């Protein structure tokens, strides 16, 4: 058999097999009649399951806002697999979002303005030397198994992360600067630091119940996905999980901030974004975020739909074209093979001047993004910076060409620009194969820079980590989600973030190492006045802009959609024009209020009836056709 | 070798099929059959071993350092790298890694998935039942449908019904399964025009159903992926059954039977069909093994939580241990089924003495 | 051997080594082949469809202009509905979809053709040599073939495409390297059959070397088989190209039918109801794959009437 012809999951060419010759016992269906019946039965069973399932099972077509017994269920479509349900191991967005919902963190962020608000800790204060932090732990938080949640749990969580490398996998960086963590009383947590740390009110570490977790023997192997419900103290309790099928959470009625308004929260898997969008349209799910967001076509088609609201919110991401600055390690050794011509700032700026950001917004994002300027998106208004008119690298391909001429990259007879090595220049652009925007803009780059006489090879990979970390690229599509406090996204461009040696990995994003930038970074870190700090941050952005290593093309919007007949209201973050999925905090799902369920179930049960009737007609027609054919067949055989 | 050559019309008689089955006079006795079985089993074992070797070395070709993939760009010091390398046995020389891998694989230990931090074998056993449910259902339906339609077609070959039948089978056979799946989603799931969506858009269950409702729910999710698989797969069974049967219908013994005055349809049912099904049986087994590996696309399009989706996910990381494990499973499915086909064929073929 | 036809007889008659005679016999047999092929209606319609697509692919630069895949000067807005100007609507860049489908025929057919040629070339080489040189060489070669035969092809091709850089060549190699074993088995069987014939004995006795026998006697005899096999494998290869491109393993800047489908899917055409973005490339793939299958089957039946439909 041509086992090898199985593209598309099926044989391409009809196979032929050696033929048996003499009468033998038939292995399948002694008579054709029986075979026929079996086939009919199979077909009928399939048709029936199709016909029956719709009217009988309320789940697929009926609104998930209300279940049979009046339970209010909020269903969210997701695509990302859970890497682990252990807070010590999970790093993916979905998993950490689930931890946000099921465990408390010391502090939380205000959905209004991203400022720090109480979480597991009521209050906090630091010693004058900023080396000792004392948190007051609330006494009205109970674990879902009835035990009181105390400062001891928090101390145990941090201590475990500090002593067991297996428990430090996900969030180890938060505690690497901790000297000692103690719980002098059930409501008091004391953290002593080795040196001052700016992120002490932003310790995004889930606090786990000591009495449950101390029984675990190997934190690097324990995934917390066997015993349900999982003991927690967040607004929801994790009650069930089936890999790549669903994650189910139940409202925690005793949650100190108040019980969530939905009784259940279900994350359901749709690996395909189109499937998720159709599921939303049919009411199978209440909310779709898309990964990272809905496509323009999907958003446009959903906008016209009744009972669906498209939330097109300014995003927290920047989307940039990074340029390899000649990757090197802290010890001075160079790495990778970035194109030498890119070391010239004029060349980098010229390239960006030939990038039509307006076309990127209009054609690729189709309006669901804001044109790029500074490093930090406008959503974080205190830090948002725009180049001055004289500084701005406006779209001007002709000027870009002249700049390249001035930089000594002359065109040859074929119109190709020649590098210092005498060879025509072709840049390798690293792109994420999973991101349609990368590939689309890559095609534009090919044509824009082609006009300049520069070749572009798109190197699209599922996982760009390896060439990226090795510095084996010329340019790359880059993007980060920015936190309310920009420290992290600023730190990844400092010299200190470079890998110590070429064999190691640093925190650096793109191997940028610039003295001026580093000095500014140190100054903002030490600045406690918010306005002054913002001013320094803006100067850093200006410096980054001029350097031309990080060319921000756009700030993509978060485009998500939900059913208004299932969700009455939901908190976005920031409250005004913010996103719903992937917030810093549990606000969206905790605050979501169910819509009046009478409405939606009425609508869907009538759909159910229609569906049932249609399915019934199909089955009847099929059966009729089958019997007609069969009668004719018998007649044929008799002739 | 004569069997091979004779049955090697331009037809796709491959070697993996029963072409190599012992039709010769030597296979008449039980000992001969046992010897034949031993040979086939040894062959299968060699193939499995070869697959084991491939799965290890092929994916080592993916450029890059697995530890860097694993740590996903986080800051990692040289000591930590060394620690991870040691933890995953990557610091050992290649040959030692290989022998470790083989040794463990033989005991059912396929290593630990990088991205899920769980034993590969657990991830596989988690997804395997889902894949088997999908492929099993589709397999039963397309096999029966193929045999049924193939028989009908052969009965009345050359007529309009036959031509429509074969034409449709060949056409569906040429359709990319993922495209057909997408079209089914657009029309039957999303709903087009006044037609409401009848079926779920993807996944295997709504979650939260129990008992009978759960069965119905899963069946409901199963319809579209199964229809897709059946549509693209049944044609092959149809064509093989049809050509085998037509071949059979020209045989001498049938003419004799007819001459003896036996009724035509009786002759067909009693003699022709059972015989013609022989080659189909072989095909059935081979299909079963092959379909398991072939569902990657359908599972991707319908978000079915099976092995195919897992493989694709594992490749994009790349999660080497998981990729290797899945590759092994896919290949083993084909090998085992091919071997079963080889073993069963002589038992069904009456020329092998009874 | 039922699959023998005029070609073989022409070879047998080579005892009279007349070049022109042989040439005429070959022409005769080709004419006979065509007469028999003509009787297969399905094969003829397949051939007609193929010629049409080949013509479209060759004249595409004239028909739709070679800048049809240009994104910066796309004539329309993104995802426009079908209209008089854009009969199939526009794609996500605003390019003319009809033009892209025609342009895509070039890549899809080229990749299909190259991959099939590569696959059949490997298969024929291994098949002929393994059939000719017996002993350990044949054993080793056939073991390798068997081993490739049990590999899950799609899985192997995906793996190969992942391992290699994304380009058309990668796709060609991934398909070619994974689909050859069937051909090898068939060609070897045919070679074994051919080599038992008396005139090979004669040629050997007259001092014909391995190369002479393989290239002058064996190869012409396996050519019909190879031809049919190529036709059938092209169909496989075109689908494989579409599959790999659809899974995102192709070169994203090249327009092929599979890549168009992937674009459509990534743009969210399925759920937003832009069915016209999806239908034309898929239909094109199906029609061409079907056409090649029909031709292949017709060729098969001409060469081996025992399997004929008409019996």
TrEMBL record, chain C:
Gene3D superfamilies: MetI-like. It is a multi-pass membrane protein. Keywords: Membrane, Transmembrane, Transmembrane helix, Transport. PROSITE patterns: ABC_TM1. Residues 105-296 form the ABC transmembrane type-1 domain. It is found in: Cell membrane; Membrane. The chain crosses the membrane at residues 42-64, 100-128, 140-161, 167-187, 222-247, 275-296. This is ABC transporter permease.
């Amino acid at each position: 058999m041509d086992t090898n012809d199985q593209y598309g999951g099926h044989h391409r060419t009809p196979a032929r097999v050696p033929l048996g010759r003499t009468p033998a016992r038939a292995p399948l269906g002694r008579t054709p009649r029986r075979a026929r019946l079996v086939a009919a039965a199979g077909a009928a069973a399939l048709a029936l399951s199709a016909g029956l399932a719709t009217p009988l099972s309320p789940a697929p077509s009926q609104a998930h806002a209300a279940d049979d017994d009046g339970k209010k269920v909020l269903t969210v479509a997701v695509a990302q697999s859970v890497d682990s349900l252990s807070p010590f191991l999970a790093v993916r967005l979905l998993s950490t979002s689930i931890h946000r919902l099921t465990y408390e963190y010391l502090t939380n962020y205000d959905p209004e303005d991203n400022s720090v608000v109480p979480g597991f800790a009521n209050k906090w204060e630091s010693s004058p030397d900023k080396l000792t932090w004392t948190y007051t732990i609330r006494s009205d938080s109970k674990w879902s198994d009835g035990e009181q949640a105390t400062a001891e749990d928090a101390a145990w969580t941090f201590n475990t992360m500090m002593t067991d490398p297996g428990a430090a996998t996900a969030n180890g960086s938060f505690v690497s600067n901790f000297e000692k963590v103690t719980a002098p009383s059930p409501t008091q947590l004391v953290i002593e630091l080795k040196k001052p740390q700016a992120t002490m009110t932003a310790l995004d570490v889930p606090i786990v119940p000591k009495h449950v977790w101390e029984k675990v023997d190997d934190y690097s192997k324990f995934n917390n996905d066997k015993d349900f419900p999982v003991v927690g103290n967040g607004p929801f309790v994790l009650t069930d999980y089936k890999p790549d099928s669903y994650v189910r959470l139940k409202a925690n009625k005793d949650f100190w901030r108040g019980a969530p308004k939905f009784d259940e929260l279900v994350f359901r898997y749709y690996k395909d974004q189109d499937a998720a969008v159709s599921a939303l349209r049919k009411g199978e799910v209440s909310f779709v975020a898309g990964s990272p967001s809905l496509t323009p076509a999907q958003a446009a088609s959903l906008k016209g739909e009744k009972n669906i609201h498209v939330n097109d919110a300014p995003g927290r991401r920047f989307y940039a074209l990074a340029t390899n600055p000649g990757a090197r390690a802290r010890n001075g050794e160079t790495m990778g093979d970035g194109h030498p011509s890119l070391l010239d700032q004029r060349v980098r700026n010229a390239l960006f001047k030939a990038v039509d950001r307006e076309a990127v917004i209009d054609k690729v994002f189709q309006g669901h993004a804001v044109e790029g300027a500074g490093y930090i998106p406008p959503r974080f208004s205190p830090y948002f910076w725009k180049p001055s008119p004289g500084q701005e690298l406006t779209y001007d391909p002709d000027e870009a060409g002249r700049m390249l001429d001035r930089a000594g990259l002359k065109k040859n007879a074929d119109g190709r620009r020649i590098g210092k090595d005498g060879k025509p220049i072709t840049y390798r652009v690293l792109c994420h194969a999973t991101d349609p925007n990368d590939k689309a803009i890559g095609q534009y780059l090919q044509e824009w820079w082609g006009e300049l006489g520069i070749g572009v090879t798109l190197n699209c990979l599922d996982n760009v980590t390896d060439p990226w970390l090795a510095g084996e690229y010329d340019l790359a599509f880059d993007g980060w989600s920015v936190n309310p406090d920009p420290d992290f996204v600023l730190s990844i461009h400092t010299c200190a973030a470079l890998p110590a040696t070429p064999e190691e990995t640093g925190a650096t994003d793109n191997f940028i190492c610039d003295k001026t930038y580093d000095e500014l970074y140190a100054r903002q870190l030490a600045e406690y006045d918010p306005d002054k700090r913002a001013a320094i941050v803006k100067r850093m952005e200006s410096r980054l802009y001029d350097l031309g290593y990080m060319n921000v093309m756009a700030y993509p919007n978060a485009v998500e959609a939900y059913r208004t007949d299932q969700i009455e209201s939901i908190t976005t973050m920031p409250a005004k024009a913010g996103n719903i999925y992937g917030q810093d905090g549990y606000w969206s799902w905790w605050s979501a209020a169910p819509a009046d369920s009478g409405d939606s179930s009425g609508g869907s049960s009538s759909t159910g009836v229609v569906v049932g009737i249609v399915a019934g007609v199909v089955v009847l027609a099929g059966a009729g056709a089958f019997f007609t054919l069969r009668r004719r067949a018998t007649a044929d055989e008799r002739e | 070798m004569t069997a091979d050559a004779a049955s090697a019309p331009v037809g796709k008689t491959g070697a993996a099929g029963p072409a190599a089955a012992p039709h010769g006079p030597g296979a008449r006795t039980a000992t001969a059959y046992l010897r034949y079985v031993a040979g086939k089993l040894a062959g299968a074992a060699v193939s499995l071993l070869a697959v084991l070797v491939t799965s290890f070395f092929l994916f080592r070709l993916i450029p890059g350092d697995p530890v860097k993939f694993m740590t996903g760009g986080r800051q990692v010091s040289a000591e930590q790298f060394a620690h991870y390398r040691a933890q995953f046995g990557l610091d050992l020389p290649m040959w030692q890694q290989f022998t470790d891998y083989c040794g463990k694989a033989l005991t059912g230990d396929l290593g630990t998935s990088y991205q899920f931090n769980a034993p590969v074998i657990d991830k596989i056993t988690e997804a395997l039942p889902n894949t088997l449910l999908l492929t099993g259902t589709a397999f039963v339906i397309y096999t029966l449908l193929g045999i049924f339609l193939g028989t009908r077609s052969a009965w009345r070959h050359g007529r309009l019904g036959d031509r429509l039948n074969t034409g449709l089978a060949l056409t569906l056979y040429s359709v990319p399964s993922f495209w057909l799946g997408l079209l089914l989603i657009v029309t039957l799931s999303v709903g087009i025009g006044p037609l409401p969506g009848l079926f779920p858009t993807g996944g295997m269950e709504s979650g939260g159903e129990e008992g009978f409702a759960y069965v119905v729910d899963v069946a409901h999710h199963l319809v579209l992926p199964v229809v897709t698989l059946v549509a693209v797969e049944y044609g092959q069974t149809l064509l093989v059954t049809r050509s085998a049967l037509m071949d059979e219908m020209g045989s001498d013994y049938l003419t004799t039977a007819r001459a003896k005055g036996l009724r035509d349809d009786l002759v067909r049912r009693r003699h022709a069909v059972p015989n013609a099904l022989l080659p189909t049986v072989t095909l059935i087994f081979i299909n079963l093994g092959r379909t398991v590996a072939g569902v990657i696309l359908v599972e991707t399009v319908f978000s079915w939580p099976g092995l195919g989706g897992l493989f694709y996910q594992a490749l994009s990381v790349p999660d080497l241990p998981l990729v290797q494990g899945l590759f092994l499973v896919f290949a083993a499915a084909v090998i085992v089924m091919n071997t079963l086909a080889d073993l069963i064929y002589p038992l069904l073929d009456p020329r092998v003495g009874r | 051997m039922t699959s023998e036809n005029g070609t073989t007889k022409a070879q047998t008659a080579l005892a009279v080594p007349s070049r022109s005679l042989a040439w005429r016999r070959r022409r005769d047999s080709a004419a006979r082949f065509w007469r028999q092929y003509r009787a297969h209606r399905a094969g003829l319609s397949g051939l007609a469809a193929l010629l049409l697509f080949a013509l479209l692919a060759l004249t595409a630069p004239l028909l739709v202009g070679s800048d049809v895949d240009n994104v910066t000067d796309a004539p329309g807005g993104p995802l426009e509905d079908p209209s008089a100007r854009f009969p199939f609507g526009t794609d996500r860049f605003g390019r003319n979809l009809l033009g892209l489908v025609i342009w895509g025929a070039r890549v899809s057919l080229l990749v299909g053709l190259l991959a099939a040629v590569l696959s059949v070339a490997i298969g024929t080489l291994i098949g002929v040599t393994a059939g000719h040189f017996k002993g350990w060489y044949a054993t080793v070669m056939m073991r390798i073939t068997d081993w490739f035969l049990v590999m899950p092809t799609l899985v192997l091709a995906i793996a190969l495409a992942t391992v290699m850089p994304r380009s058309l060549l990668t796709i060609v190699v991934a398909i070619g390297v994974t689909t050859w074993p069937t051909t090898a088995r068939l060609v070897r069987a045919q070679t074994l059959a051919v080599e038992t014939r008396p005139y090979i004995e004669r040629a050997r006795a007259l001092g014909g070397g391995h190369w002479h026998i393989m290239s002058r006697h064996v190869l012409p005899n396996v050519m019909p088989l190879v031809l049919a096999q190529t036709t059938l494998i092209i169909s496989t290869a075109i689908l494989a190209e579409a599959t790999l491109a659809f899974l995102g393993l192709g070169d994203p800047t090249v327009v092929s039918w599979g890549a168009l489908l992937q674009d459509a899917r990534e743009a969210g055409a399925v759920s937003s109801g832009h069915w016209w973005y999806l239908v034309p490339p898929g239909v094109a793939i199906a029609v061409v794959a079907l056409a090649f299958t029909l031709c292949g089957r017709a060729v098969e039946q001409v060469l081996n009437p025992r399997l004929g439909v008409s019996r």
